[in-house]
Amino acid sequence: MLKIVLLGPPGSGKGTQSEKLVAEYGVPQISTGDLLRNAVANGTELGNKAKAAMDAGELVSDDIVVGMIRERLEEPDTENGFILDGFPRSLSQAEALDELLERLGRPLQAVVHVKVDQEEIVQRLLERGRADDNEDTIRNRLKVFEDSTAPLVAYYEERGLLSAVSGMGEVDEIYARIKNALPAEAK
Ligand code: B4P
Question: What is its pathway (predicted)?
């Protein structure tokens, strides 16, 4: 049973580390970035609405993202847990998540904040080279993170859920740090 949020700037390794957690704990990774990219690739109405914001490195509107997460968390494979990767990204998303998980009777166990230096992030993302990984968009995504997502650190700290780990270094050593930060009931 693992019910956690991975919080961190773009390129901090949330997706990379989620894959390792999925392999070990057998719970699904729920990445709003992946769900949105699928919607864009399939040309759905939702994807068409999200595309411009994603290309600019802005947040997609809360009603789209929260609706997507609500549907995903109601699927049966999340009953034994989930790894939220890239959600929530704003205080209003965090409040919506609290309400949703309370209704489902599945409170969060932990929020792991993966911290990485800004210049390392720019390098990693330029190397990856996804459509939204150009320097201007990356810098905007970092600014959006500071403005909208960083306040979640205090939000989860106040609720006693936050652990911070360094996301610098090798993938496996970061994974060991994340596992160490998980609460006993999740191990
Ligand atoms: P995301 O898909 O979440 O994009 P991301 O933050 O860049 O992903 P991540 O942080 O998982 O990248 P990873 O470290 O795995 O979002 C994209 C866009 O979707 C947003 O800009 C926004 O428009 C929209 N969106 C998503 N969620 C939203 C929400 N909740 N609300 C509103 N809008 C939302 O990978 C980065 C690279 O680093 C990879 O190439 C990886 O191989 C590499 N890497 C990983 N670990 C490394 C290490 N230790 N050393 C070196 N390289 C490493």
Answer: Purine metabolism; AMP biosynthesis via salvage pathway; AMP from ADP: step 1/1
Q: Ligand 1 pocket test: pick from 5, 16, 100, 138 the residue with the most ligand atoms within 8 Å of its Cβ.
A: 16
Residue ID of nearest Cα to ligand 1 atom 30: 87
Q: Tell me, rounded to whole angstroms, the distance of Cα 150 from its chain centroid.
A: 12
Residue 162 phi, psi dihedral angles, 5° rounding: -90, 135
Mean pLDDT of 49-74: 97
Contact 60 CB / ligand 1 (< 6 Å):
yes
pTM reported for the whole predicted model: 0.94
**Residue 118: C-alpha distances to residues 138, 141, 145 (Å):** 10, 11, 11
**Domains, the chain, with CATH or none:** 2-186 (3.40.50.300)
Percent of the chain topping pLDDT 90: 96
Contact 125/170 with Cβ under 8 angstroms?
A: no
ipTM of model: 0.89
Split at pLDDT 50, 70, 90, the class of 184 is: confident
Cβ-proximal residues to 105 (8 Å cutoff; 6+ apart), any chain: none
Q: How many residues does the chain have?
A: 187
